[in-house]
Each structure stands twice: as C-alpha cells, then as structure tokens.
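Q: What does the assembly look like in three dimensions?
Context provided by user:
Components: two
Sequences:
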Amino acid sequence: MARRITYELYYWAEIQGRGEFVRLALEDAGADYVDVAREPGGMKKLMKRMRDGGASSPGTPFAPPFLVAGKLSIAQTAAILHYLGPRLNLAPSNEAGQYAVLQHQLTLADLVVEAHDTHHPIGSGMYYEDQKPEAKRRSQLFLEERVPKFLGYFEAQIARGGPRQSWLVGRSCSYADLSLFQVLEGLRYAFPHGMAALARKLPRVNALHDRVGERPNIAAYLSSPRRIPFNEQGIFRHYPELDAPEAKRAARAQKKRR
Amino acid sequence: MARRITYELYYWAEIQGRGEFVRLALEDAGADYVDVAREPGGMKKLMKRMRDGGASSPGTPFAPPFLVAGKLSIAQTAAILHYLGPRLNLAPSNEAGQYAVLQHQLTLADLVVEAHDTHHPIGSGMYYEDQKPEAKRRSQLFLEERVPKFLGYFEAQIARGGPRQSWLVGRSCSYADLSLFQVLEGLRYAFPHGMAALARKLPRVNALHDRVGERPNIAAYLSSPRRIPFNEQGIFRHYPELDAPEAKRAARAQKKRR
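A: Here is the predicted structure of the complete assembly.
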C-alpha cells in the first residue's frame, strides 16, 4: 500500500453527474479527498486546471470529472476508477479481474450516455423544452429496449457466478458494483414507473443495489449533506412525461381498484 | 517483452465499427492476430463466446469488440487498447502517460457515440428512414457545435507540446493517435462538406492524421483487403442529406464561379 494520499476530485458542485461514480468510490473506501469545486474558491481552481492542466500533466481534461493524485492528473470517469480501484481495494488484485471491472464500468458508461440522451436526443446544447417530442420517443425506446438489454446483461453476469455470487466480479465489491447502484438510483429517480415495471425481471441487480446501499460508508454518505440530491440539471432527470406511460396507467388503474 | 502471442480479435466481419480502433493498433504494431469473425466458421465462434465467455473469463462481453489474449478476455474498445498499448509499444512506459492516452481514447469514444447518433438520434433499433428529420437536426448541431469542440480540444492538446510535438502524448505515436486518425477518416467519409469547412481550424489534427496514414504498416493495411471500406451499416455513414448544407452550398457556388 502506498503512503496515504489526499485525492482532489474536480467536478461540478451542483450535480451528481459523472463525478458521483468517483465520489461513491472515495466515500466507500473512506479515502481522504477534497471535492474541490465545493470548497470556497474551488470553482476558480477547477476552471484554472481546465485551462492550464497540472504542472506535470501531459494535457488538459476535456471535461470534469478529473482526479489529481499527487503529481498525476486523470480525466474520464472510467480511467479515474481504473486507477483508484486497486488503491481503494475496490478492484481485484489480479489483472483479469481488473479488466473485467473496467469493462463493466465502460458498459455502464454507455448506458449513462443513453440515459442522458433520453432528455437531450437532438442536442446537448439545446433546451429540453425544444426537443420534447423527440425526448418522448427516445425515452419510450430506452425503457422498452435499452434498459432491459443493459440491466438484463448485468443480471446475467451476477447469475453466472452461481448462488454464492453477490457482486459483478468475484467475491468482493468493486467500483463497478457501486456504479451499478448509482445507475439504478438514477434510473429509478428518472423513471419510477418504468423501472417499477422492470423490477420483477432484475432480482439480482436489485439485490446488489440494496447490498451497496447498506454498506456502512455508503449509507453514511447517502444521508450526509455531501450527497447532492438528484435534480433536473444532471444526467438523470425526472420529467414525468418521459416516464413509461403504460406502466403509469397500469399503476393508476391498480390504485383505483383497491 | 512477453513471449509473442497470437491475439484473437472478435468483431463483426462487415464493418469497421469500434473494432477498427483495435485493428489499427494490431496492424500498426505488426502483431500476430486473427480477426476471428472473418475466418471460416468465425461468426459461430463469436456467438459462442458472447454466450459462454471464455473458460477462465469472469463474465461475458456485452458486445463486440472483445480481445482474447491467452487466458485473458477483454471487452470494450478502450479497455482492450489500454491493455494492448504498452505491449504493442503504442503507449508510454510511464503511468502518467498511459493514463493520458487512455483519457484521450475515452474522449474519442464519446465523440464516436455522438457521430453514431447523428443518424440514429431516437433509437438504435429503429431504421434511419424513420428518424430522418431528427437526424438532420442532430447532424447540424453536431457539425456546428460538437465536432469543433472535440477536435478543437485535440488541436489544443497537440499545440500544448510546442512546435516539436507531433503526437497527442509525448514523443511517439500511441493508440490514441491511431484512433484520432480513424475518427477523422470516418468524419470525412460521413460529412465531406462539413469537415472540409472545418479543416482550416484544425491544422495540427489534420497533420497528425496524415502522419498516421503514412506509417508503413498503416499504409499497407489501408490498401489491403483487410481494411473494410466504410459503409452505411457502420458508425460513420454517408447520408448526403445530413452533411452540412451551408458548406455544401458554398462549395457549389465556388465551383460555379471558376
């Protein structure tokens, strides 16, 4: 184990966004870290790093999040987590396991892009209000085809390990498990009806989600002010008109019958 | 250097797609590899691996490409390249450099997703013909805002290294340089007018593209039957109606004036 280091996470102060995958890893491990942009004067520091890079950094980041660890500066969520994984005991010690975890993280990143694009299918620089009909069509296909495909894949990965398997890779929790938890949290926030309708088919994914939420450091973090609530500036946004209309109707009908 | 190994690349036989980033790295390095699905019986082998994983693999891939290297099986393009980089002499030997290259690869991957979604903004499972008006709007924003932002970023990264810098990171060619070449090739194929209109602002990116294309192993590969031509089943598709209409008009007017 290397000497204990204070990590600097650079990410927007107002949203969970992609930075949240890094925050969860740092929190779960009880790592020493500073969430730079949330400190006084931190936004200025973030913008300066975006412009200048670090003293010894070979480049500048395209976008937050980026992590500064001593002399090292790493951008892109999956790259940050691949670096942190073994250091925070959130990845296996063997190479095959580390690549398996990275591969899952990248598949989750693909899902995250698609989740974002449900509300911004035409352009990320445009207002949601100017692409609402397109957002409705994309959201419906997302819930009917893409979420079942992605989460069904993760369900199968957990099932592969047999009845004793609790995590995506091997016998202990990795950063990909924390990220799967976060994706579930986000999807449930954005699409409560759509996700409720899928729950029956994802028992292992949902159980893994709950196991992550019960980890002491994660539970403490989630109930702390450090956890920024979901909101309509982030990746996962709750626009009721995008949530599964059929699932919503079914839920209403059932409520009436009671 | 480890014992020489025969790599197995698993990817669709009919398109460049994401597999092309791996093909370029293997070709540039002169590595021993088999493009499995393009061999007789190879598609069956690919489908079996998708279903069963490898004997010692902790999971199955979500999607091709995946690479088999001895007992190791790795999916997700950026993860494959991060693994291959130091082994093929296409990444720096130091950790900071390796993460810088990985970070660039992931930023290029983000651009690739957006390039794909220009023709499929609503749903990847739908026909292009059923999302054509949306594809036009998205393509316009892509060419006006996103391509200049991404490629302008890479232009600045090359400029950072000063006049002697020829590559994205450090003093030698990495897999991220090969990938930037491929992204340029794809964008020029898909949007000849849109990209011509941007060329003036990207002298370093275009020079890097040319340097990659002149590398002996890359030049030999590009003129061999192993290089699958671009087509309308891949990521980069040439639909003339999506190419920059203003740039097209300007080019036509100029031709008339001659």
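Follow-up: The CA atoms of residues 3 and 169 of chain A lie 27 Å apart.
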